[in-house]
Amino acid sequence: MPSLAQNRIGADIGGTFTDVVLEAGQRRHRVKLLTTHDAPERALLRAVDLLLAQAALGHADIDVIVHGTTLATNALIERRGARTALLTTAGLRDVLELGDESRFDQYDIRIEKPTPLVPRPWRIGVPERIAADGAILQPIDRDAVLRAAAFFRAQGVQSVAIAFLHSYRNPVHERRAAEWLLDAMPGVWISLSCEVSPELREYQRFSTTAANAYVQPVVAGYLARLEQQLRDRGCAAPLCLMLSSGGITTVDTACRFPVRLVESGPAGGAVFAADIARLSAADRVVAFDMGGTTAKLCLIDDFLPHSAQSFEVGRVHRFRKGSGLPLRIPVVEMVEIGAGGGSIARRDGAGRIAVGPHSAGSAPGPACYGNGGTEPTVTDADLLLGRLDAAGFAGGSLPLDPARASAAMAQLASGEEVALAISEIVDEAMASAARVHAVEQGIAIGGRTMIAFGGAAPLHAARVAEKLDIARIVIPKDAAVGSAVGFLRAPIAYEISQSSRHLLSELDTDAINTLLAEMSATVHAVVAVAAGDAAREETRTAFARYVGQGADIAIKLPPRPLTPQDASALLEDFSANYRALYSAIVPNLPIEILTWRVRVAAGRAAASPPCPPAADPPPLARSMQMRHMTDAQTGARHAVPVYDRASLTPGSSLRGPAIITERDTTTIVTRHFHLHVDDNFSLVLTRSLPSHAAPAP
User: Fold this and answer.
1) Element (H, E) at 177
2) How far is CA 339 from CA 335, 358, 564, 607, in A?
3) If 295 and its partner were Cys, which of 19, 301, 339, 544 is the partner (CB 3.0–4.6 Å)?
4) 556 shares a domain with 498
5) What is the CATH classification number for the domain harbouring 578?
6) Average pLDDT for residues 407-427, to the nearest whole number?
7) Is residue 520 domain-shared with residue 582, that is, in the same domain?
8) E strand or H helix that includes residue 482
9) Which residues pair with 177 in a beta bridge?
10) How many domains does the chain have?
11) 169 by DSSP, 3-state: which?
């Protein structure tokens, strides 16, 4: 179990970098390598080898590996999944294409919607029909299923999604169809909507099941290769996978439901930020994770990240909500935009400079990497603005080339102003995304503590905080590999949801308790595989709405069988949550519960390794060198002191502007902030003057 193991490895494969950490007793080792997209496990295994050498350990000494990967996400976005078919109810083959009535742009008559993962010829409808209450109206036609199987086999289909109407109430037809397909197509992968997403709303359920089928052979093949290569090295430790919900699970479960891995890396970052929030006593937090490809922002209240039951992947319209493929899975709720160190700058149709969402990735990477990249990126801009040390980048293992960065910038305009423009555009994009996300949650962003992590976040956190009127920033120890560390803080956990409509005023508690008991048994069985006899905590949630509305609201359920007397407490909880979101309730309108959720978490998340005791620090840290850096507000270039983070111990303090360097990232302290180091070795930046104040003469 990860919380009890001594030698733990957390591995996060991102779009640009692969981050791997090893916690061995009270020591933590870390490695950041460029991601090897052709074989993602290659960089991971090399990093493990390097870490074990650092710690003087062997592969047999590893107790557990917790892994998160963008493999499923990339397969969906880049359309590199398996040849996938859809078997559905006759008349519903076009649900994936029609979608629902929502439009992310109401007035665009040429609106571009995401292309379905399954092409129309491979979407086959068969005669069968189950009513909304689960009654069988028309038996499933076995011959039709076998004809579809023969067609799929002839087309070389590798994976089949089975999604029938109302199967969330009665899965019998989906299960029979799966048996017949497996007999007719030995070795084919099967995804059932009654298992992947047994909830209302056909489009979301069909889309989620198709996505699961599309990535299942890819993810299962990768995990099998990774497990085998670890075994070949003598590693017998269990391999666990990070889920998008913030829990971890076994390889077997991940192979059955790989769609739940889509946001695994960012979820690990949210868990990391929640752990830092607890250590820093910050109960209202915005987590800011900026890597090489994307930036993610997540709200954390009372040390818990916000969560959601749906997510979009592969948005086709500049990351606008509603323009992607909907996935009905439990996720840590966050906003993600194409703003990372590798984000490419260009001129748009109007001649304006635009940044992202496309990234240079790890190959060829930014122009300054010298690996063949020629387009200007955010990292190139940061280098030219004096924020990065060309010789010391990545601990000196990846020296940067300012001349190549300048040549790339010259494609847009000459002079340092274009680098500053790129930096300001990307910072404003991240600040705007945070504002919109907070407004959608009915929450004010100003006044929160920002926890910044990821390789690029410490470079940009202070400027983004200035734009958001945030006065306190925490940059934790090992921030550059925060998501990988977060994997080791996460509990073994799993959750499922099931739709079953009940009016709150007419609760059938016997039927509901039977449903919840069955769901609880299923989830406990999944968790027990990895957690064994460890103590478990179960939470139950219902999703309710006023009759006729489209959106629902989460309300807590007691961790016991419901009684008729619970209806009044559920009504009060719903009304309080509804009022918090919309400022008022609708009296005398009936309320219905649509979906029920059960989550089980085992054990406690591993505590952060204790920090070694520090000697009494000097009240003011001393700089060892100076570097010229451009002020983002004034555009003027000044000599700024540079500090090695390793020399800053608890109690050290300094005033901005300053540059704090370490192996895997750089922290920029603007002139508006004062920095001190807390007892956890975190850099805490506190605004010492208003961000709109006039610059010093």
Assistant:
1) helix 172-184
2) 11, 9, 50, 31
3) 339
4) yes
5) 3.30.1490
6) 90
7) yes
8) helix 482-487
9) none
10) 3
11) coil
- What integer pLDDT is reported at residue 615 of this predicted model? 44
DSSP-derived letter for residue 390 is: T
The predicted-structure confidence for 326-379, as pLDDT tens digits, reads as follows 899 999 988 888 888 888 999 988 888 888 888 888 889 899 999 999 999 999
Q: Are 188 and 157 in contact (CB under 8 A)?
A: yes
381 contacts: CB under 8 Å, gap ≥ 6: 345, 405, 409, 418, 419, 420, 422, 423
Answer positive or negative: Cα dihedral of 406, 410, 412, 417: positive
CB neighbours of 688 closer than 8 A, spacing ≥ 6? 655, 656, 672, 673, 674
166-211 confidence digits (pLDDT tens):
999 999 999 999 999 999 999 999 999 999 999 988 999 999 999 9
C-alpha 482/C-alpha 266 separation (Å) is 10
Indicate whether 595 and 504 sit together in one domain.
Answer: yes
SS3 assignment, position 654? strand
Full domain range(s) for residue 392: 343-423
Six-digit token string for 530: 């990895």
Statement to judge: residues 598 and 636 lie in one domain: no
Q: In whole angstroms, give the CA distance from residue 619 to residue 516.
A: 58
Share of the chain above pLDDT 90, in %: 70
Encoded amino acid at 260, one letter: R
C-alpha–C-alpha distance, residues 601 and 599, integer Å: 7
| Count of Cβ atoms closer than 10 Å to residue 674 Cβ | 16
Q: Are 593 and 499 found together in one domain?
A: yes
Residue 523 included in any domain: yes
577 and 652 assigned to the same domain: no
**Residue 591: inside a domain:** yes
Q: Are residues 581 and 640 in the same domain?
A: no
End-of-domain residue from the set 423, 443, 461: 423
423, 447, 462 - which closes a domain? 423
Question: Residues 521-538: pLDDT tens digits?
Answer: 999 999 998 888 788 999
**Are 554 and 637 within one domain?**
no
Q: What is the pTM of this model?
A: 0.89
In a domain, 276, yes or no: no
d(Cα 604, Cα 493) in Å, to the nearest integer? 11
Whether residue 198 is preceded by a cis peptide bond, meaning omega within 30 degrees of 0, is no
Q: Please check whether residue 377 is in contact with residue 342, taking contact to mean a CB–CB distance below 8 angstroms.
A: yes
